[in-house]
Design a protein that fits this description.
The chain is mainly α. The protein is 81% helix and 2% strand. The protein has seven helices and two strands; from the N terminus they run H-E-E-H-H-H-H-H-H. The chain has a two-stranded antiparallel sheet. The longest helix has 33 residues. The radius of gyration is 25 Å and the shape is globular.
Length: 210
């Protein structure tokens, strides 16, 4: 257990706390003297910060482990799923949009797992990383949107951008998976030509021998 992995586990432990703060109806307006939306945004922001920090520290300290490579994307998916589902329950996000975004996350995760199982490289794309950044921004704005109307407008816009980038990146992942798994046409034709030459040579040697 190193520091990057500890941060990853800490992000997972923050997930239920985030859900409790966002969805619990407190009698008072404040939780520990802070509006619950602000506290929820702070918890989510801290969790999102650990997502960047654990990867940075793992690379800088050369502490990349198989456990971290497995748990880090899982922690990300749990955090985003919990936040988006909570926003739906709060009436801050459209159910159909969240369903598409989370469905995309599941589909791409399965696709990348299949590629990994076949020993094929399928790293996170730039568009996928942009989608993650937009998700963090959208969630933060939507959590705070109930108190500041401008945040709500910007959050809805950011969520639409998340939807577009999510679908677009999913299509690109699928195309890349097809390219990696389909036989290379050029290699197939080269092998076919070699077999044809070998057959002609064999016939020629047979005729010469006869």
């Amino acid at each position: 257990m190193n520091l990057p992995n500890a941060l990853t586990l800490g992000r997972i432990f923050l997930v239920p706390l985030l859900v409790v703060v966002l969805l619990t109806k407190f009698e008072a307006e404040l939780v520990f003297g802070v509006p619950k939306e602000v506290l929820g945004a702070a918890i989510f922001g801290l969790a999102a910060l650990t997502d960047w920090l654990d990867g940075y520290l793992a690379r800088r300290r050369n502490e990349i482990t198989q456990f971290g490579q497995m748990m880090d994307p899982l922690a990300d998916k749990l955090l985003i799923t919990a936040a988006l589902v909570s926003l739906v329950q709060m009436g801050r996000a459209e159910t159909w949009m969240v369903a598409i975004i989370l469905g995309r996350e599941l589909a791409v995760t399965v696709l990348r797992s299949l590629a990994h199982g076949r020993g094929l490289p399928m790293p996170a794309s730039r568009l996928g990383k942009l989608k993650m950044v937009l998700q963090v921004v959208a969630v933060l704005l939507l959590i705070l949107g109930s108190r500041v109307w401008l945040f709500d407008v910007l959050g809805q816009l950011a969520l639409w951008l998340v939807l577009v980038t999510a679908v677009t990146s999913a299509v690109r992942y699928y195309r890349r998976f097809r390219i990696l798994t389909e036989p290379n046409v050029a290699d197939f034709e080269s092998a076919r030509d070699r077999r044809a030459r070998d057959e002609r040579a064999s016939v020629g040697r047979g005729a010469a021998a006869g």
